[in-house]
Structures are given as structure tokens and as C-alpha cells.
Queue: 2 jobs
Job 1
Amino acid sequence: MSSLRFLPNPTHFPHLNPIPKHPPNPNPNPKPKHPFTQIHSALQYNRKPQLTGPTPRVVVITSGKGGVGKTTTTANIGLSLARLNFSVVAIDADVGLRNLDLLLGLENRVNYTVVEVLNGDCRLDQALVRDKRWSNFELLCISKPRSKLPLGFGGKALVWLVDALKARQEGCPDFILIDCPAGIDAGFITAITPANEAVLVTTPDITALRDADRVTGLLECDGIRDIKMIVNRVRTDLIRGEDMMSVLDVQEMLGLALLGVIPEDSEVIRSTNRGFPLVLNKPPTLAGLAFEQAAWRLVEQDSMKAVMVEEEPKKKGFFSFFGG
Ligand SMILES: Nc1ncnc2c1ncn2[C@@H]1O[C@H](COP(=O)(O)OP(=O)(O)OP(=O)(O)O)[C@@H](O)[C@H]1O
Ligand SMILES: [Mg+2]
């Protein structure tokens, strides 16, 4: 099995490389820099990513298996897009078990939800919660925590909602991100209905991959052809020890374009509990930088390649049982 260099490396993404201001350094063996210095320099973008495709880009963030990082991805990619000056509406479609508001630290400001909008109890703009840090980022929750999916609420209601967002006086948002609930039941079908593209989040384990494979089929049946995946919670130490599937293995199994690879990072849990998404951390952590780069690729409808850095002798079919 191969080990992969998955950590964000700006040399793999020429568009992230700043224009060199100085001639090449004549010293061939410079002292190694502090890791954060290197990470920070990768964020000195010399241009804004070019938005491709018609707006709004309606993107569902889904997985099949629960707890793999959909909401974390929605929060971090959403705020990365806002930082890149795109207008973003993030819809928490996880009815009854919503938590995107918590990750964003906006829980105390959600007074109305889509259910009240549909009942005529409030206007759409009253249900949209504007982020104080990035005013071009807004959150919209479908319903109150622990409430059930209202009767009659389905894909059509979400399509109506997306149309209403398009028709707003403030202008149509560049991105509408839909945080999908786990599973493949009614909530999933509702969440994917208005989407034109999907980000499939998976962890590199067989249960998540089997669910992701099933979800890919359902998305394609629904007419969503643009599906890219994010491999989350990757650990190089486990990959090297052949205790975790490599990103290349995951890619081969699912056959999807790779939007990003996010390392396992304790900062994710810390930032979740603080309601302060990782991408806002200064200095950025590797996981935060990986989310930022995934956001760039999303804007440009680009994908990345898993780059092989070393080849280890093949052991007998450790993961060969997956998928037969
Ligand atoms: N890269 C990571 N490193 C460490 N922890 C992570 C990472 N990504 C997500 N987590 C943690 O995993 C847990 C689940 O994440 P999250 O809520 O985003 O998953 P989800 O797919 O939205 O779950 P659900 O299916 O319940 O909606 C959280 O505690 C989060 O902090
Ligand atoms: Mg979630």
C-alpha cells in the first residue's frame, strides 16, 4: 500500500503560490522555518479564486455515515468562502439535530427558522442570521432543535427556499451550502433536492466508504453529476503503519474527484467547542489550511491529486475485502 503526502503543500497548487518578489535564494541549505511560518506564507494568496459556473452554486455537503465531519466542513468551507469575499448562505438541513449554529457560535442569535417562514410567522430575512465576523456569511436553520420534520416539508419546500434566496433584494448569494443530515432517508432526500453539486465527506474507514458509495449512487440518480469528495480525519502515522487506508485507496474505491484532504486535528474539536471555526484561527493549523484550499478548489471547480511520496512493499490484501 502506498503512503501519501496529503498535507497541504502549496507547490502542488500553483495558483496558491505567491509571485516571487526576490530572486531565488542563493543559500541552498537554509535553516528550517517554524512550521507556522510556512503555513502562513501559503496563505499569502496573490489573487482571488475565479468563480466558475452559474450562481448561486447550490452545494450539498453529505456523507451517508454520521459523524464524519459534514457540519465541520460546511462551517469551515463556508467561512473560507466568505473570507474570499463570496456571499454565502449556509442552510442547516439537519432537522431536529441541528448543530451548525453551535459550530459557528451563532446559537443565541437564531430566533426564527424556515418552518416559521413557511408558516408565515416571519419574513425570510428575519430567519437569516448574519455572521458578525463576516457579514457576507448568513446561516439559515430549517427548524428548532429537537423538533420533527414538519408534515409536508420536503424537497419542494427547499427548492422554494433556494428560489426565494435567489430573488432577495440584497442580491443572489454566490454559494448556498446545505448541511445534510446523516443517513439516506427523507431528510437526506430533502437536502439534496435543490442541489446542483455535492461535496461528499468521508473518513478513510470501510463503514464510511460503503455509505459514501451508496450515497454517490443516490446523488447520481437525483441528477447530481458534480460530486467531489473530502477525506477527513486522515492520519499519516496510521497510513504509514498500514492501519489506515491511504487517500489514494479511498479515491480508487469511490472513483470521485478529490476536493480536499483534512488531517485529524485536535484543534477541530477545540474550535467546535468554542464556536469559532478553525479557518479563523491565527496562525492557521494544517486542518484549517486544508479547508481553505478545499474552498479554493470548490470556487474554481478544481480538484487535487493525491501525491505519492513513498512506496512500501505491498502486504497481502489488508483492505481487499472492501467492496469484494
Ligand atoms: N479533522 C478532524 N479532526 C478531529 N476531529 C474532527 C475532524 N473533523 C471532525 N471532527 C470531529 O468529529 C465530530 C463530528 O463532526 P461533525 O459534527 O462535523 O460531523 P457530521 O458528519 O456533521 O455529524 P452528523 O452526521 O451527526 O451531522 C466533531 O466532534 C468534530 O469536532
Ligand atoms: Mg452534522
Note: Residues 63, 66-72, 94, 182, 232-233, 262, 264-265, 268-269, 272, 287 surround adenosine-5'-triphosphate (ligand 1) (CB under 6 Å).
Job 2
Amino acid sequence: MIENVVEGIRWIPGRDKFLPDSHVYVIGEPESHDLSLVDCGLMEMGSYKIEALESGGIDLNHVHRFILTHTHMDHIGCLAELLAVIPHAEVWVHEAEGAFLERGDSRIVFGNKMFESMIRTQYAVDENSFTFKVHRKLTGGEILMLGGVEIEVIHLPGHSCGSIGLYNRANKLLMSGDTIYADGAIGRYDLYSADSGELKRSLEFLSKLDLDILLPCHNRIVRSGAKPMVENTVRQWSPILGD
Ligand SMILES: [Zn+2]
Ligand SMILES: [Zn+2]
């Protein structure tokens, strides 16, 4: 399934099983022939996303890049699978996590030893499974023009060191990765490279954004009126997160 959120931004819902699988967003006006995919999903969860793209009339030749909100396994687990089908696509990620991908350091991907051993027993992952060429390292602050859609990159460390949000000012729309979700939930802050104080500062930044549409990478999306929900979420979590 693929559905329009606003003109130029489409949504392929993730399919959680007992492990989460991230949503994928498609940025770009169809006629631009310049499409970007935001995140990929869990291992072995690539093929239905390819089917969703094709059923939505998207020519895979028009997909030019993957932009990763961060590099946890539920977001990049099927990156290799998708790159096998879309080999010309570039990989863009925040520089803090790009360095890990380039040297094949999978500590952020797995998050902790328990997840790592669980994944290694269930999936065919080897030492090189999470080594990728990174074509563009983002820093935050970039204003990108992606297939006719303007996107600001916001560095949101906390859930992981290189987490980013993608903000479309025209629609007051935020793709928030795993930093904040609908209905009062925030990203966990106990995994490798996470930092609760940084997460608090990132959330406080988001609570000041002009927001209407919230597109997190898990669970439901908020199609309008997201700002008071985000403000409430941040108000509730800030004292718990400390400094
Ligand atoms: Zn995550
Ligand atoms: Zn996630």
C-alpha cells in the first residue's frame, strides 16, 4: 500500500511483526522524476516496499536516493535489499552515523548486545551486512530541493547520535524518524549512542516548530493539528529526561 499525504509526499506503512519495521516516505513530485525514499525497514521487508512503489506507478529509475533518519536495524535492515533493485540510488545520512556505516561498525544498527544476538540468530547478517558507501553526509541545517519539494534537515540527536528530522515548511510537515511519535510517545534513549539530555533538547526544539502534519517512522501518522500533541508530549517527557 502507498498513499498520498500531501502533494509530493507519499507513505508506505511499515509492517511490524514481533520486531518493528519502519514506514517509508517517498518525497518528490511524480512528474519531477527525482524521488527520494526516507528509510527502508527491517531485514527481509524490502520486497513489499518495491511492490508498493510499483503499484503506485513509481518507476524505480526515478528513485535517486535513500535518506536515512538514522541507522537502526528497523530502518536500514533492508537497505541492501532495496539497493540491489535500485542500484543507482545514493545513500544520504547524518555524518555522525555515516562514519559508522562506512567503516562497517554495526553498534548503532543493533543498538545493544541483546538485539545483536537476537538478529544474528534469526537473519542472515554477516560482518559486511551494514557496510555502505555514503554519498552525502548531512550535518543538519541543509535546505534541500527534492523533486520540487523543499525539505530542511534538522539534526535531532538523542534517540541516536545522527538522528535527523525532515521538515517541509510549506505544509508544516515533519518526518520525525524515531525522535517523536503520535499520541505521547518518544523514541527510546537506552541504545548505543543515545543520550537522554540531547533527546530532551531535540524534543524542545521540535515543540517550537510550526507543525501541522507529523510523520513518524512507526505507528500512526497525524494528518493535521500535530502541534498541541507534540507540545504535550514534550511537556510530559522533559522532566523525566533530565539534562
Ligand atoms: Zn530508532
Ligand atoms: Zn525505528
Note: The chain is about 30% helix and 20% strand.
